[in-house]
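Need residues for this backbone.
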């Protein structure tokens, strides 16, 4: 951890790699003949994840979170605006940020919420 008590990028990458390895190893163990329930217990991963992978309902490259709505640059601009407004004393609630982000997405030409950059 760094001076602020936050995780560094290398610590986050190591943790991410460890989890990806654990999930992949458990999946290939099921392919080798181990029952899904046993592999889930042995590798401490959700049984539903292994079941989805083994029945090919979900790809191995699937991400647990939805795809991004904004590009890196657009997201950076939105964050800069929120920080500036907080610095001058106007904080947003979570709901206000959601409305602001939705309006910003429409202004960027994304009328459909499933449309990605």
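Answer:
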């Amino acid at each position: 951890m760094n001076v602020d008590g936050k995780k560094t990028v290398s610590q986050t990458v190591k943790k991410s790699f460890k989890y990806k390895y654990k999930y992949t190893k458990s999946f290939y163990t099921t392919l080798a003949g181990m029952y899904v329930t046993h592999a889930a217990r042995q590798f401490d991963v959700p049984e539903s994840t292994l079941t989805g992978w083994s029945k090919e309902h979900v790809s191995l490259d699937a991400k647990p979170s939805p795809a991004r709505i904004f590009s890196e640059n657009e997201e950076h601009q939105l964050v800069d605006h929120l920080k500036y407004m907080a610095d001058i004393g106007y904080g947003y609630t979570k709901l206000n940020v959601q409305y602001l982000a939705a309006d910003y997405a429409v202004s960027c030409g994304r009328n459909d919420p499933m449309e990605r950059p």
